[in-house]
Design a protein that fits this description.
CATH superfamily: Ureohydrolase domain
Number of strands: 8
Helix content: 25-40%
Strand content: 5-15%
Number of domains: 1
CATH class: Alpha Beta
Structural class: alpha/beta
Number of helices: 12
GO biological process, one term: L-arginine catabolic process to proline via ornithine
Pathway: Nitrogen metabolism; urea cycle; L-ornithine and urea from L-arginine: step 1/1
Cofactor: Mn(2+)
Order of helices and strands: HEHHEHEHEHEHEHHEHEHH
Shape: globular
Keywords: Arginine metabolism, Hydrolase, Manganese, Metal-binding, Urea cycle
EC number: 3.5.3.1
CATH topology: Arginase, Chain A
Distance between the termini: 47 Å
CATH architecture: 3-Layer(aba) Sandwich
Largest sheet: 8 strands, parallel
């Protein structure tokens, strides 16, 4: 934990106040009406895929090519192999026209006009996919797209729990971000507890930060900024870093995460999965890689367990960048992404011996 005086200096320097509301961001109005009924069981025989070739949330070119690379590597065919009964619909890529802010700006939020426009269109598309009774798979693009995908999920089912699988917390505000890249801010934009930390944001009136940060769990953290660490500790956010994965094992980490964010097993589940959560040896073609991450086996297990809840409604797979690394690096990264996504759609690595042991135990 940061020493109190260091935290005070940090807060003073960034302009953030741990206190009463001073921002109008919380009062933004949405053009959707929220569902109030308990989420129904997901129909896993119907799957919808949405591409978001978006790269304006960060500065490295190429991440917008991620959806195309994953599709061309045979994503739909690999998912279809799970069962011939699966009905898979590709909704294509999100298109948008950047807003004209007419001189209105927010400091330290780069390409906001693009992020706001793309995210709004994505939110509508995700809601449409979920309303069509399909598991929604969103292919990024950088992690800024989670603003739109989670917002769209919230407009389909208000009671949502989120598992954020990432090397980074993505919890900065415009006042604390060292880069101004919005792919490092989506959690802070979505959480209602943090809405007071923002100024009014033009172009984001459609988005209302209503999800509780206590309904979110991080898995795979290993590169967290001091401000983000202070916020995690202040709000008691469920954060399982690589140290916890090593200490408890991925099975126990996943059990604890689900128990904390959805103790009654009733919430609609959203997994937002940054490929950089995997170790760089498993997924080298990504923009902000950090050594010492999850193995692919651990990453797949997270998706299998999320699917096993019967409540997994939406998945983001982001930050695959085919412009980084050698052709072999790209192949390995894209293959890892497909392994994760087919696990989210129901592919199982379970062997026959497990079924036999279950019968013996019964």
């Amino acid at each position: 934990m940061l020493p109190r005086i260091a935290l005070a200096r940090l807060v003073g320097r960034t302009g953030v106040t741990f206190g009463a509301a001073t921002s109008s961001y919380c009062t933004s109005t949405s053009d959707h009406s929220f569902a109030t009924i308990k989420p129904k069981k997901i129909n896993y025989e119907r799957i919808g895929i949405v591409g978001v070739p978006f790269d304006k949330g960060q500065r490295k070119k190429g991440v917008g090519l991620g959806p195309k690379a994953i599709r061309e590597a045979g994503l739909i065919d690999h998912i279809q192999e799970i069962s011939p009964k699966l009905n898979i619909k590709d909704y294509g890529d999100i298109q948008y026209e950047a807003l004209n802010f007419q001189g209105r700006k927010v400091g330290n939020m780069k390409k906001l006009e693009h992020v706001a426009s793309c995210s709004r269109n994505l939110s509508h598309q995700v809601t449409e996919v979920l309303d069509d009774d399909r598991l929604c798979i969103t292919l990024g693009g950088d992690h800024a797209i989670a603003i739109g995908s989670i917002d769209g999920h919230l407009h389909h089912s208000k009671d949502v729990a989120v598992i954020w699988v990432d090397a980074h917390a993505d919890l900065n505000t415009n006042s604390t971000s060292p880069s101004g890249n919005i792919h490092g801010m989506p959690v802070a934009l979505l959480a209602r507890e943090l809405c007071d930390y923002w100024p009014y944001i033009p172009g984001m009136d459609w988005q209302e930060p209503i999800i509780s940060i206590k309904n979110l769990a991080y898995i795979g953290l290993r590169s967290v900024d001091p401000y983000e660490r202070a916020i995690i500790e202040k709000f008691g956010i469920n954060a399982f870093g690589m140290r916890e994965v090593e200490k408890y094992g991925i099975r126990e980490v996943m059990r604890m995460a689900l128990e904390r964010i959805d103790p009654n097993g009733e919430r609609s589940l959203h997994v937002s999965y940054d490929i950089d959560s995997l170790d760089v040896l498993e997924a080298p073609s990504t923009g902000t890689s950090v050594r010492g991450g999850l193995t692919l086996r651990e990453g797949i297990y997270i998706m299998e367990e999320a699917y096993g809840t019967g409540r997994l409604a939406a998945v983001d797979l982001v930050e695959v960048n085919p412009a980084i690394g050698t052709p072999e690096d790209v192949r390995r990264t894209v293959e890892a992404a497909i392994h994760l996504l087919v696990a989210a759609c129901g592919h199982s690595r379970k062997g026959d011996i497990a079924d036999t042991l279950d019968l013996i135990q019964k």
